[in-house]
Specification:
Distance between the termini: 25 Å
Order of helices and strands: HHHHHHHHHHHHHHH
Helix content: over 70%
Strand content: under 5%
Structural class: mainly alpha
Length: 392
């Protein structure tokens, strides 16, 4: 296949990945504005994050099984159509519950998108370009954290939070046109009956069970703090709007540093990097309040370390799963994604309870304590049974 034939479809999927992940993240940067718009607390607005994540976690596998026999291009057009219409509903929402319903629609589309996008990306490129295709999709999703969230926040501050979602809806409309006009029809996905046996194999793999348990707890702790870091910086640290946006941007940029560390040093120092990330996360969150009392500059520096630790953690454990199941990691990775999203929802829920009880200043301590439990479990249970593995 010529470069021209696969380059454009891959770009369409990459832009779609950016759009979907930005839509998931944007409520974090606009939580205070959304809450104020409907006259609800930040904790109640935070349920938008919780419900979204839980829908993605719970519906990814059932929806994929339901549409498993549909040709991928047609299915993706349907997915992006639901995403587009749900953003129209988001912009037109007249109350909190209508907004919640629209976000559930977006979450359902999100559930299917990340189940089929990697397979579609690999299918449109030559075999020797598969790693490039997957890297492009990961980059599209990662840029959402680096640029999508901060830009969406800036636009929301200037023109209102609805405008941020309107722009994402328009971008998804362009993706839909690209899929319709330029994306090739793909062969029907093959059904693989051995997947049932693989499910049983997952349960019998102690390393994988450890990874799932650690992920569920550490992500819950992370999002207990991160989901409410925007109102924390505004209300507790007293930072101006511009400084908050810059800090959220730095959090995302730190992910690039984490990717560099992993690609360069993980094979030689995998144990050190995994444990540093696991214990670094609770350490960064525990320092959030003490640093807030000193300087906004220190908060920004702290968030760089926080973002670095989370990126290293996520890449490391995805690599662990891929190397545990080198022939076909799609099923264990699907479960990992679901567990990760359960952690996002649980963290936002716990953070909401904390802020509802007037303890927003302490979200770092509480989130850090949850993550610390996972880090200790990783040290005492996972590390003794783990074998050094080369990053893929």
């Amino acid at each position: 296949m010529s470069k021209e034939k696969f380059w454009l479809p891959l770009c369409i999927l990459t832009v779609a990945g950016f759009t979907f992940n930005t839509s998931e993240l944007i409520p974090i940067g606009l939580l205070s504005d959304i809450a104020g718009s409907f006259g609800v607390s930040e904790a109640r607005a935070g349920l938008l994050i919780t419900v979204y994540a839980w829908v993605v976690a719970l519906m990814s596998l059932p929806l994929m099984l339901l549409f498993a026999r549909m040709e991928f291009r047609k299915l993706m057009i349907g997915v992006v159509s639901v995403f587009f219409l749900s953003h129209v509903a988001t912009v037109m929402s007249t109350g909190y519950y209508s907004l919640m319903g629209a976000r559930i629609g977006v979450a359902l589309a999100h559930s299917l998108f990340w189940s089929i996008a990697p397979a579609m990306g690999v299918a449109v490129v030559p075999k020797e370009k598969r790693a490039t295709a997957l890297s492009a999709l990961v980059a599209g999703g990662g840029i959402a954290l680096i640029a999508g969230l901060p830009l969406g926040r800036v636009l929301g501050i200037i023109a209102g939070w609805r405008m941020s979602f309107a722009v994402l809806g328009a971008l998804s409309g362009l993706v839909l046109i690209g899929l319709w006009l330029k994306f090739p029809t793909l062969p029907k996905p093959e059904t693989n009956e051995s997947r049932r046996d693989m499910l049983m194999g997952l349960v019998k793999c102690p390393q994988l069970i450890c990874i799932y348990l650690i992920t569920a707890v550490i992500v819950t702790g992370h999002y207990t703090g991160y989901s409410y870091v925007e109102p924390f910086m505004l209300k507790v640290a007293g930072m101006p709007e511009g400084a908050v946006t810059l800090t959220l941007t730095l959090f995302g940029v730190a992910g690039l540093g984490g990717s560099y560390l992993m690609s360069r040093y993980f094979y030689r120092y995998s144990r050190v990097l995994i444990l540093s990330a696991c214990f670094g996360l609770p350490a960064m969150m525990a320092l959030l309040l003490p640093v807030a009392r000193v300087s906004p500059v220190l908060i920004a520096m702290l968030c760089v370390g926080w973002g670095l630790c989370m990126t290293v953690y996520n890449i490391a454990f995805q690599n662990e799963i891929v190397t545990l199941f080198p022939r076909d990691s799609s099923v264990p990775m699907s479960f990992y994604s679901g567990i990760f999203n359960l952690g996002i929802g649980a963290g936002a829920f716990v953070g909401g309870i904390v802020t509802d009880h007037g303890l927003m200043a302490e979200i770092g301590y509480i989130g850090g304590a949850i993550s610390l439990a996972a880090a200790i479990y990783c040290l005492l249970r996972y590390m003794p049974i783990r074998k050094p593995r080369e990053i893929v």
